[in-house]
Please model this.
Amino acid sequence: MLKTRIFAIATVMTMLTAPFVASAQQDTIKEIEKYRAALGDGNPAELWEMRGEDLWKQKRGPKKASLEQCDLGKGPGVVKGAYTVLPKYFEDTDKVEDLESRLVTCMVMLQGFTYAQATKDPFGGPGKKADMEALVAYVTAASRGMKMNVGLSHPQEKAMYDIGKKMFFHRGGPHDFSCATCHAADNIRIRLQDLPNLTKQEAAQRAYTAWPAYRVSQGELRSFQWRLFDCFRQQRFPELEFASKGSVALTLYLARNSNGGTFNAPSIKR
Model:
């Protein structure tokens, strides 16, 4: 009898307090959005964009060539709108490539770098700035304001999308986590960070189109490859290899889910 009464009281208290908790959550989300909007004034990512443009035009590598003839999916040298169709299948490599892996291909084929040289230190850190992140900033900025339109017309694109989807829902590691643990439900947040439900188009559009981003807390611009790398780290998974097939597959799954969203990056985050 006592247990029944306690349970009844607890149920009533939950019903009474639930509206207040929900209201507090909504107020918190609104304040976070105000904070992000304030950060958006004077985005330091512009510095990465300018450096990336310089790197794009520089004659570098053993072949002393620029990247100005690099085909990112819209034709040789075209950067405007290129990010909106990536990842995609490229006939010259017979592979599906995202932006970073395609830039690596161009550095190897056009400039003469080895694959090891082109993929070395892709992420910036204390005392060093990564050329790759600057190139990513330059290319992605040229798609700002355009709609995402990632296709699955080639069989390899469809296969990679399916692989990426399986990776998203695969659980493993010491905590039995998956990408879906944090990103397949509504209204989840870690501290001040809301976790979008990437299985829903609207949330995926809002999240994917905000990367790459300048991270205020790190003083660095971070690419989407870095975002995936850091998610794997937080899940305690084995390190995600930069520009690997798995990273491209997962990117394709998330990019495709964002179709129709307006690309608005490089953005700025806490």
Q: What stands out?
A: The mean pLDDT is 87. Residues 45-269 form a domain with the Cytochrome Bc1 Complex; Chain D, domain 2 fold (CATH 1.10.760.10). The longest strand covers residues 88-90. The chain is about 50% helix and 10% strand.
